Amino acid sequence: MPGQRDRLNTRVLRAGAPAFDDGAAPVNAPLVRTSTVRFENDAARAGLHHRREAGEAVATYGRHGTTTHRALESALGELEGAEHVLLAPSGLAAISLTFIALLSPGDHVLVQDSVYGPVRERIEPLLARLGVSFSYFSAGAGLPANDVRANTRLIYAESPSSFLYEVVDLPALAAFARQHDALLAADNTWGAGVLYRPIELGADISIQAITKYAGGHSDLMQGAVAVKDRDVARRLRDTHEALGLSVGADDAWLALRGVRTLAVRLAQHERHALDVARYLAEATGVVERVFYPALPGDPGHALWQRDFHGANGLVSFALRDATLADAVAFVDALRLFGIGASWGGYESLALIAPASRLETHSAWRGGAPVVRLHVGLEDPRDLIDDLAQAFRRIAR
Ligand SMILES: *Cc1c(COP(=O)(O)O)cnc(C)c1O
């Protein structure tokens, strides 16, 4: 096992590497699939069962995962700076797990208004049925001092936010949460643990959709919840167990393969996205505004410089003097950017931001259609040529 003092990339590459057996070992963690865990004798079974009951991530049944899952969890733990990692079958399942595990009837949760849409559309109604009330705060309006209540048990942030990449002052929010005896959870899908480390900045819980950059190849669905505190981890583990959440070994293996090259892929996505963002910022005839926190002039730029270690491939922009029909014609004219949800794979994507989602973001002003690009690993000159020809198609 590498020492804690190794730098992050070294630790992430070594985490979960198999030990030598008979003087030799494979580089990669073996793909271990099983439903039944077989014990050498009953004492071994009882010992493992006891350790699991005490909160340790050991398996007594296939649903608890195998050494493949443990290797992935240890790599994600390095990325997030967390002792405990729980895997879920999707990013959304990881978020739901967090809400269900940490909230009880009568509790209140304070959610950033620019979060991933399904938190509002799917999780709020589910939790409302269980007696939990939601309210929303604007990350751009300072600390939510007027919105916090005596029964606020959880504050939920996503920095940078979905679609417009609103950056949150997470250290200030963490201090605020502690003052009010609430836990702070952050969706870290944008930063993936390489670009952003919410737990180091004071959050109690960091959640990632592994589906995006950690997976990195648009071939799997998965989520992870990383937690530092043992008691909070215990509550999450109990609910994880009750919900029967389980991730296939093949998907865990694929996700770990993605994590090994995460930092180098992100650096390339950032270089390409910066080229595209600068091109868009100069295309003032067709583009009203570019959203990318690494661009000077973006409202989140100063906080991004202070708290982040880089940017990813997500760039959004508002079209100038355009209708929704123009935006549709624009994305339809693109040849290299596929039209699709999700992001974080190697390929470029474009999606019109649904107005119903943007309207709930206090960071959003005005009615111009917004296009979200995921800038992939293609040659950025080809991507810019593609954007230019699509702009020409909608030029009046
Ligand atoms: C995609 C996404 C999720 C959900 O992940 P899935 O694996 O698609 O369920 C959660 N949060 C953010 C910020 C996302 O972009």
Automatic annotation (TrEMBL):
GO terms for biological process: L-cysteine catabolic process to pyruvate; transsulfuration. The modification N6-(pyridoxal phosphate)lysine is found at K212. SUPFAM superfamilies: PLP-dependent transferases. InterPro entries: Cys/Met-Metab_PyrdxlP-dep_enz (IPR000277), Cys_b_lyase_bac (IPR006233), PyrdxlP-dep_Trfase (IPR015424), PyrdxlP-dep_Trfase_major (IPR015421), PyrdxlP-dep_Trfase_small (IPR015422). GO terms for molecular function: cysteine-S-conjugate beta-lyase activity; pyridoxal phosphate binding. It catalyses: L,L-cystathionine + H2O = L-homocysteine + pyruvate + NH4(+). It holds the Pfam family Cys_Met_Meta_PP. Its cofactor is pyridoxal 5'-phosphate. Keywords: Lyase, Pyridoxal phosphate. Belongs to the trans-sulfuration enzymes family. NCBIfam families: cysta_beta_ly_B (TIGR01324). This is Cystathionine beta-lyase. It comes from Caballeronia cordobensis.
